[in-house]
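Lay summary. Proteins are chains of building blocks that fold into shapes, and those shapes determine what they do. In this project we predict the shape from the chain. Here is one chain we studied, written as its sequence of building blocks.
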Amino acid sequence: MTRHAEWTHIESLPPGGRISPYIHWTSAWSHMGDALAAQDLLQTDCPWLARAIRKSLGDAAEPWARLLHNVLPHHALPSTEKTEGAAQEETPGVVHRIPVATDTVILGIIDDATAFAHERFRLPDGQSRVDYLWLQSAPHDPGKRATPFGKEFDRHGVEELIDRSRRGRSGEIVDEEGLYRAAGALDMGRGTPQSLARAASHGTAVADLAGGFSAAHVPADAAPQPSRNLMEIAPDAFDLAIVSLPERLVMDTSGTFAEIFIILGILRLVDHAEQRSQREGRDYPLVINISLGLTAGPRDGSSLLDRFIAAIEAERPRDRVPIRFVLPAGNFRQAQVHAVLEAPLDEAAPPLFWQILPDDRTPSFLEIWSSPLRERPQHVPFDVAIQPSGHAIAAALETVPLDGVFDLFTDEGRQIARCYTQWVPQRSDRPASAGRVRVTLALPPTVPGQPGRPCATPGAWRLLITSEMADVSDAGWPLDLVVQRDDMIPGYRGGGRQSFLRDARYTRVDDRGVTVTRDAPGPDGSYSHVRRAGTINAFASAPEVVVVGGCYADTLEPVDYSGEGGLEGLGLRAVDASAPSSMRRMRAFISAAGSRSGSRVGVGGTSIAAPVMSRELAKAMRPMNERPKLSGVPLLRRSPDDTIPPPVLPVGESTPERYWEKSTSGSSALASGAS
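And here is the predicted shape, written in a compact code that computers can read:
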């Protein structure tokens, strides 16, 4: 029996692309609770940082502030009553041309729960190297410096926690389990997965690779030795500033609320470094590692996170040490989540399908982006039709207005999809184009959470995208299609299953059974719609950040899964450099710290390569005492495209042994092969 479906206009959205389709979808499925005003979230006493907030965000954070209760446990939110006597720490006047701190660098980590009391984050004498800690989902405690939510600790607060948790005759043993419970970092009663209750924690591994040291690295009674080269550094020169994100945020791999929590984390880290610099009269280098990733988004530097990072760089005084942001390239090169349409996709064209998996308990999203346009069109310049699995007729979305919401209903009145049409302006520093058109298709889970809830039919949904214009370039061609991330992180129970794009011309392996890592034309000379190029991490698209791919430690070749950029026509940037993310093809992990002192776990992915780069970048920044040298790092040479593998991170002799394996002669295979 032929089943029909048609689109219905539901509502209009505010112009300017400020409303996230993911947040709009979530709000439609969630109960709206009490609000936190955006101005309560974005506070700083630093004048240039306040300018960066106004310049990049404006009022765009307000919708996110209204929905924080969807991510944070109730006890992490502040009380509605104002706390008396909680005064802000006084900030000295702005100090210009303060000397650079050549003996210390601050490493910022924004990630999953981090075992901040781990022995690898302490000095040989037992003192903590954690200079700042924000537990975003811990019970709210305004303390001396009120946080918008959660709980924060300075170095003294972390030391107090460790001292209260010492056991044994001389206090040589730290009860880490009890410490994390007392701090609010571990609470099995929250109803969410607790990373610090498992043997492995992503945040701990990242922090270890970025700034972890063995307790025996420097003997307590050893006399200080002069550094022989840029790559040597002592543990006391690496101060850690850690932001632990909420569990629900990490569990939602589609990143519904990720940007605002990351932005708030950056704000607190930069504000902390600024407060310390002004208080001590020294300009501390700051490297911020964000080992998180998405597949979909603008990916052209125009997202709120991109604009915030760009504003920080633009507003920071020119005579100050620059702040470095390091992000991974992503792990989705082979996931078939990206496609490029160079011509209209009609019935006669090679078909392109969106494969929706069964037993998916989370929504699936597909974004369709136009190429940059010089002016805002009156309506969506291309027609989108989607043929649901099991339906004989495709539902066409033709000549619809921008900034609208449309639902797809069957003849029986059952909702099976939603579509968002938006005009997304470009960054103000890119005057060549006014913006891009984004069409976001949203499908409900294939398993309804409750009886009567909408659900999508699993299977192959065919996509048809055409245009009435004679010159399709005027309609925004070529088009960029990206499936949003929707997988399930080990240890979490989100229930997501990653949907993907299908094209019969796409080749996973060659005739020898070897994985294909580069796009190449088929026998007829045509390319598949589905591409590996353009699979770069959507968080890592700002030109101001350092993007790190993964490589094998033994051969220095790029790993098969490392995200690829380089589609300059669509505004996508390239990967800057590669760092080890796997030891070898048959051993796809690197050793890093587990959740408790003395434990080691195997970790992999470009999110592990990023902290390796952060560590080396921090080493390169620290000894330099002349500001012009800090404006760039020679080992990060950018290329205009991504047709060749990015340069591999040079690793010095003093790099910890876990980054490589010893050869039979005892020399480092990685160090000897570094370019």
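What the prediction tells us: The two ends are 63 Å apart (CA to CA).
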